[in-house]
Write a structure and sequence with these properties.
alpha+beta, Jelly Rolls, 4-stranded antiparallel beta sheet, globular, about 40% helix, 10 strands, Arc Repressor Mutant, subunit A
Amino acid sequence: MTGHAHSDVIREGDRPEQVILLLRGWACRYKVLENGSRQIVAYLVPGDLCDPHVFILDVMDHSIGLLTDATLAFISREAIIHLTDCCPKIARALWWSTLVDEAVLRHWLVNLGQRDAFDRVAHLFCELWDRMRQVCLDAGDALEVPLTQEQLGDTMALTTVHTNRVIQRMRTEGLISVTRKMIRVHDIERLRAMCGYDPTYLHLRRRA
């Protein structure tokens, strides 16, 4: 199935009967508060299961929105239950994925609570760089991140003005370039050094 940018594939309160696998494109998990403000709590890249817990939990406690046009595959709840029952390796893989998601959430909490605005955004760019390289979707010596400054602010708990200051500093220092809907990360090694990035929490499995 093809999904379109800026549309939701699942909304908070839904009771999905299928697990969604992201094959192409970018998506995010997010919550909207009563006052209309949004908090993005995770980014999803190709190869990620959007909602792996639905075969155990009944109701979505967050929404999943597409940031770009995307290709999605749907796996029935019954199929997931059957696979985990009959194939321990698949069950362990899903468990591993859940544990990594928890590790990323812990890292994001530390970023929001203890790092300044520049380091928060820099850490996010480094994380996305490593995750995209893991699925062989990097662009050589640069990475295109399809995020707006508003979306970055909703992720890092920054105002639009504060986010813009960080982006302008990164542009001035030659770390990134920016178009209307895309941020291109250029000097990833300098960015890593500037923010003290350590990818251990991603538990990346190196390819042979």
